[in-house]
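Model it.
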Amino acid sequence: MPRSHVHLAEAAPDGETLSALLRRYDSTGEAVSCEPLAQGLLNRGYHLATTRGRFFLKHHLDGDRTAIARQHRVTQRLGALGVPVAPPIPDAHGHTVAVVGGRCYALHPWIDGRHRDGGELTAPQCWRLGGLLGVVHTCLEQVMRARTSDRQPPGAAADPADTFAVIDELLRLVRGHRPRDTFDELAEHRLVERRALLERHAHRRPEADAVPATGWVHGDFHPLNLLYRDTEPAAIVDWDRLGVQPRAEEAVRAAAIFFVRPGGTLELAKVRSYARAYRCTAGAGAAEMAAAVHRVWWERLNDFWMLRWRYQRGDRRADHQFPAAAALVVWWTREYEAVRDAFCG
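Modeled.
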């Protein structure tokens, strides 16, 4: 598990905490070192070396033991079906969630691998990536017992009136930011541009009943949650957002992250290969994919989470993603039919 993309990593648990944690396990040995890897919204990760080997130690910030244990059971079952995952290591009593000092931890095997974005993938590798996500969705259907309530469709698509209010508030914050820098200038330009785009396309808001088929999904499938060993996927990690959503929308969202170029365009030839494999494996038809493309496009058109992080929360971890993501919305709107055809053709 590589150390790339480390943001605001927190100091590792102290020696007393590590000793208390490792005493729960039969064969992990004693701690030798514990290095912070990355801090996310839902967890923090550490590279833990012991006298018996190397491990990935995960601190779950939400502390919901029931939800964490469910994620663990799911990855164990997926692993049994041959899906590349890294299930947690059970302790001496068979538990996979350890509470030490009021904090929830899980110990996973260390996976030697690296992240790959779409620009590094060959056409056959793009096909295998789409097929892998299709396998994840079909295998989740096998291992999960979804209640009827889990199958309720997602909420209504974003209302342009609400988005215009968000744009106005962000423009106020951007224009008042001091000292003004090039990011502020870009943010103001994109906000004004997006408002004009939304005014022009407000009538294309997805209908409430135009929701693709729902099912269990990973919830956060993107390059930083997929580790490769050489040219093949070694492990899909970070299952914190496991849930029931429109399946094809996850496929579209993932492609929009894997295959976006720095200038904000998609590599449509690679998208086409990836999407064909996903459709074949998941059994998703062209109509389902077209509805997903439209809903994700609309979601992107109305979404400003990166700017809200920066200007409302003072959190700049997503700043580096903004230029390409903002440009992609404009390009996707202009090339809407070509993008749809790449996913559906």
